[in-house]
């Protein structure tokens, strides 16, 4: 998204190709998120975890387009692409670093209860 912000700001025709690549990358791992949520949550919490994830995703999908549409009208596409590039960096600390150990710990803790 940062590269898209720069190429769009410069008026480069490469921004179209970058938009296609960004679109493919954005949706290519979507199914993996559902699998990871269920594995990390364990068998007793997977339904709740998936419901929370789906609700959060739905709310975000409903709220973000009008907000970003307004931001595009005020600041333009390059600024919004640059803002979108920041969100993955902010989310990095929230990503589990050792999911196998976490999922196994949760599963054994729930099983012993």
Summarize the structure.
It is built from 6 helices and no strands. It is mainly alpha-helical and 113 residues long.
Q: Would you count the extended β strands for me? A: 0
Helical content class:
over 70%
Counting H and I runs of at least 4 residues, what is the number of helices? 6
Low-confidence blocks of residues? none
Query: For the report, how would you describe the main beta sheet?
Result: none
List the helices and strands and how they pair.
Blueprint: H1 2-9, H2 14-28, H3 30-41, H4 46-75, H5 77-91, H6 99-112
Helix pairs in contact: 1-2, 1-5, 3-4, 3-6, 4-5
Structural overview:
The protein has 113 residues and is mostly helical. The protein has 6 helices and no strands.
Distinctive features:
mainly alpha, 6 helices, elongated, 83% helix, 0% strand, 113 residues
């Amino acid at each position: 998204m940062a590269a898209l912000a720069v190429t769009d700001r410069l008026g480069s025709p490469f921004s179209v190709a970058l938009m296609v690549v960004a679109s493919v990358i954005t949706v290519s791992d979507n199914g993996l998120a559902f699998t990871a949520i269920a594995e990390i949550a364990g068998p007793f919490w997977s339904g709740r975890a998936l419901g929370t994830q789906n609700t959060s995703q739905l709310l975000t999908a409903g709220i973000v387009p009008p907000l970003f549409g307004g931001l595009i009208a005020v600041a333009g596409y390059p600024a919004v692409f640059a803002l979108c590039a920041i969100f993955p960096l902010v989310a990095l600390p929230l990503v589990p670093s050792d999911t196998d150990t976490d999922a196994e710990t949760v599963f054994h803790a729930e099983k012993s209860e």
